[in-house]
Amino acid sequence: VLQKWVNREISNFDYLIQLNTMAGRTYNDLAQYPVFPWILRDYTSEELDLNNPAVFRDLSKPIGVVNDKNAKTVKEKFSFFFRYENFEDPLGIVDKFHYGTHYSNAAGVMHYLIRVEPFTTLHIQLQSGRFDCADRQFHSIPATWQALMDNPNDVKELIPEFFYFPEFLENQNGFNLGQLQISKEVVNDVILPKWAHSPEDFIYKHRRALESEYVSAHLHEWIDLIFGYKQRGPAAVEALNVFY
Does the keyword Protease apply (predicted)? Predict the structure, then answer.
C-alpha cells in the first residue's frame, strides 16, 4: 500500500483510510474512529487557491501547536494549564503529557456528526438526555478552526466525512440545536467557509485540497505524528505530541 501511494497509484484519501484500518481504527467504534487531518487554514477567503502554500495547515505539527502562540503555552513551565514540564503524578502512574485530551475520541465524533443519526441520539445520551449548550455545538467550520487556533486545549483533528459526506453539514432532520448566547443566532446548518457555496461544493473543494500537490508532498509528516515514530518516546516529546 505504501509503495502504491508513493507511486501515486492510490489517492491520499484511500491511503489514509487504509492506514486507519491497519491501525485498528473502524467506523464501528467511536473511541477508535478513523482520523483525518485538518489540511487547510484558509476559511475566510472568497476563493480557495490550492496553488498557494499559505492556504494549507503545517502538517508537521500537531494541531494543538499549529499556532505558534499555543506552542509557547504548551511548553511553558509554569503556565495556567497542566503542561509537560510541570506535570508530575505523585503516584507515578501517569506519564508527563502535553495535552490532557486527544485528537480523536467518541465525543469529538459525535460533535461533528450531531445532525445525523445515530450520532444525534448518542450525543443526547452523552449529555444526559438533551442537546449540549448551543455555543459548544459544531455550528461553523471557520469558527471551529479559529477555536483550535485560540485554544491549546482543543486538539480535535477531522473525520473522513469531511471529505465525502455533505449531508452531515445540513440539519436535514430539523433538530432544535438552540441559539448562540451572544449573537442569538439559531444553530441550524453548519456555516461554511466563504469559498464554499454549498455543502457539496465544500466537500468537492476540500477533497481536491486533500489530493493537492502540497498535501501529497507533506502528508507523511502528519502520518509520522498519528501513525508513525512521533507517537511516543523522545521524538514525540520533541514534536510536542504527547497525549494523556
Answer: no
